[in-house]
């Protein structure tokens, strides 16, 4: 959190051989009723991005007659159902927009597989809310981030809630799950990344001061912020300049503002 002061996630050939998370995730309950395989994601943008992602394993596509026309033309033909059936499947609070897709969770690539992708890398230090993670993925996709790194043990698996909040970003930005965030930051530093922790009391985040450095931006959990070891591993601690009376932002909002600053053109 801050205080005052479109490549698609598919084209990694190595991803076909990455299976370290498949057995655990394919048997995890993801919140929505299952077909016996995978989990359900919903919403027009989330479903469209998954349908267009050749790395996705897809089991079933459900849509209302009204929503069918908005779906992209793919090999997956929808089964036409009523809105009430989708309400029962996803829950009445879910904004499914008339479409629902049963999929396998995506494989998580290794750091070495994404290091050469353009754009900054985002690192989440124990951010656990799936809606926040989804919103961060949406911003990451919008601003061309190379990847999102999370701590495996403290990060939820893919869910329909996360996919909906990501609005397609889940299938665009690769998610890398690591055991030790500090060690991962050190690996990034060895490959030339400048690691910036976003937290209160830091110097003002300023694109012009970073020059041509490639940045890994680290965001801490709501309330707790960056953990001590994570903070100590960063090359610098920065905060977002805010001219109004509010002193802080939600972590997903802070990520969007910070990504804009990191990727804005230099005049």
TrEMBL record:
Gene3D superfamilies (alphabetical): 3.30.1330.30, 3.40.1280.10
Entry annotated with the keyword Methyltransferase: yes
Swiss-Prot/TrEMBL keywords: Methyltransferase, Transferase
Domain RNA 2-O ribose methyltransferase substrate binding: start-end pairs: 40-109
One Pfam family from the record: SpoU_methylase
Ranges for region Disordered: 1-34
Transferase recorded as keyword: yes
InterPro entries (UniProt xref): Alpha/beta_knot_MTases (IPR029028), Ribosomal_eL30-like_sf (IPR029064), rRNA_MeTrfase_TrmH (IPR004441), SpoU_MeTrfase (IPR001537), SpoU_subst-bd (IPR013123), tRNA_m1G_MTases_N (IPR029026)
CDD domains, per the entry: SpoU-like_RlmB
Domain of life: Bacteria
Residues of the signal peptide: none
Record PANTHER family: 23S RRNA (GUANOSINE-2'-O-)-METHYLTRANSFERASE RLMB
Protein name from the UniProt record: 23S rRNA (Guanosine(2251)-2'-O)-methyltransferase RlmB
Source organism per UniProt: Bombella pollinis
Encoding gene, per UniProt annotation: rlmB
């Amino acid at each position: 959190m801050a205080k005052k002061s479109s490549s698609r996630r598919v084209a990694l050939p190595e991803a076909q051989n990455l299976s370290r998370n498949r057995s655990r995730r394919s048997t995890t309950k993801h919140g929505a009723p299952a077909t016996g395989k995978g989990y359900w994601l919903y919403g027009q943008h989330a479903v469209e991005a998954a349908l267009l992602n050749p790395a996705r394993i897809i089991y079933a596509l459900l849509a209302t007659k009204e929503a069918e026309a908005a779906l992209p033309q793919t090999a997956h033909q929808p089964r036409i159902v009523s809105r009430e059936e989708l309400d029962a499947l996803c829950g009445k609070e879910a904004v499914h927009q008339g479409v629902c897709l049963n999929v396998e969770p995506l494989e998580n690539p290794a750091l070495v597989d994404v290091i050469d992708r353009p754009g900054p890398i985002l690192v989440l230090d124990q951010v656990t809310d799936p809606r926040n993670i989804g919103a961060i993925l949406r911003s990451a996709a919008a601003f061309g981030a190379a990847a999102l790194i999370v701590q495996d043990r403290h990060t939820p698996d893919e869910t329909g809630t996360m996919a909906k909040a990501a609005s397609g970003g889940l299938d665009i930005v690769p998610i890398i799950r690591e055991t030790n965030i500090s060690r991962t930051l050190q690996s990034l530093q060895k490959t030339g990344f400048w690691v910036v922790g976003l937290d209160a009391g830091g110097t003002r985040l300023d694109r012009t001061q970073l020059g041509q450095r490639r940045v890994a931006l680290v965001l801490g959990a709501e309330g707790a912020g960056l953990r001590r070891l994570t903070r100590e591993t960063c090359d610098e601690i920065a905060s977002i300049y805010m001219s109004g009376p509010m002193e802080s932002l939600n972590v997903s909002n802070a990520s969007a503002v910070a990504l804009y600053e990191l990727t804005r053109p230099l005049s």
